Amino acid sequence: MSTPTDTQRMEKIVSLCKRRGFIFQSSEIYGGLNGAWDYGPLGVELKRNLKNYWWRVMVHERDDVVGMDGAILTHPAVLKASGHVEGFSDPMIDCRTCKAHLRADQLVEKKGVKQCPNCGGKDLTETRQFNLMFETHVGAAAEESSIAYLRPETAQSIFVQFKNILEVSRKKLPFGIAQIGKAFRNEINPRNFTFRSREFEQMELEYFCRPEQGMELLEYWKEERLKFYENIGLPSSKLHVLTVPDEERAFYSKGTYDIEYEFPFGRQELEGVAYRTDYDLSQHHKASGKSLEYFDEETKQKFIPHVVEPSAGVDRTVLAMISEAYAEDQAPNDKGEMESRIVLRFHPRMAPIKCAVFPLLKNKEPLVVKAKEIVALLCPDMTVFYDESGAIGRRYRRQDEIGTPFGVTIDFETLGEKDPALRDTVTLRDRDSMKQERVAIQDLPAILRERIR
Ligand code: GAP
Hints:
Elements: H1 7-19, E1 23-25, E2 37-39, H2 41-60, E3 65-67, E4 73-74, H3 76-81, H4 84-87, E5 89-94, E6 101-103, E7 108-110, E8 113-115, E9 128-131, E10 135-137, E11 147-150, H5 155-160, H6 162-169, E12 175-184, E13 199-209, H7 214-231, E14 239-243, E15 255-263, E16 266-277, H8 279-288, E17 294-296, E18 301-303, E19 306-313, H9 314-325, E20 326-332, E21 338-344, E22 355-359, H10 365-378, E23 384-386, H11 392-402, E24 406-410, E25 425-430, E26 436-440, H12 444-452
Parallel strand pairs: 3-12, 22-23, 22-24
Antiparallel strand pairs: 1-2, 4-11, 5-6, 5-9, 7-8, 10-11, 12-13, 13-19, 14-15, 15-16, 16-19, 17-18, 20-21, 24-25, 25-26
The structure holds glycyl-adenosine-5'-phosphate.
């Protein structure tokens, strides 16, 4: 079933991302580099929160997974053995009328005739395979023997280091190796903002197991990954699991699920969860001549482990979080009149800034001093933003627009001027309900830590 698209909403999201410093076009002042994006001060925080949470759940909170951080430059033999040099390509067609390079599946069909989606031209080339890998040269001589590739997925370095990591970690099957890092694909048509980029980040787990555990672990990881997305604020109603049909699956895979999210431009893949059998380790075992077998101490048998791989995209998940968080509603201004506001309803765990701190007036020194003390108190535990300029309502609005879940205001009651019982208390405002509660300054770190963890 297709999901309706919302172009207007997408345009507002792209504009907000630029205006507030989440995501910029890469090399923008030179006209931009297609398919590459730079994350600004808020975007980088959001991205880090996502990666840190993934690492926490997938590595730190488990005793059966260890991490690694592999090189981006990859020996061609690795990618020959994995099948990427031969087969990592998309079918491409050129439009002779407008000269567009198109992925074959992007052509539109009218009355049974294939047309260019850009100009409607019907003068199209034959389909040819276009390899998506970026090739580069290592060292001073640009000859065949110096070729290396920018990795098209992080997974291959995990397979290639399997034996080393098995030995140093002394793990027993089933166990996993996790990695977060950049991957590069020369996509024919980068599009939908950051969704399909040429440089992007992946969060991948290769979970090694015995052959008979593969199908069960495929189900297990699909469920775990769905829970993860709910825990970062993507509701289950907008997440879908697509069972990839036999004819579309890689020949070596015994089962693949795509986890999809309803983006404003339609339902699209966030993550693939694939049972890759023993394909990758077997290929490297054969091609390198080095044993990648596992010795089972119980049965005294050697075999090549199978693997289940949950592979997620950092940039796509960031885009899904922003798309989900974006909302427009009504909020009262300083005079109590309702006005429209833009708010990013990030899950507090993911929000780039956790807490904003406002002295009620900037020209009242005791308020400013107290506010700065509170910033210093909270800083070690969370990202904090201090703002003293403008009416308090406007300051709230600015924070709502970047998704800050909590706002602390230091007022005259904090100084004990109205009621000594309220000395050293502040108001704590919740972004979504806009409700305010009065809390003691000394309790703030613990209250906020609990809400953002
Ligand atoms: N190791 C398996 C693998 O790489 P994939 O389905 O090709 O599988 C996994 O990629 C994830 O990486 C995708 O679900 C997506 O989130 C992300 N991804 C892939 N290509 C991307 C691109 N061009 N731009 C942004 N993210 C991409």
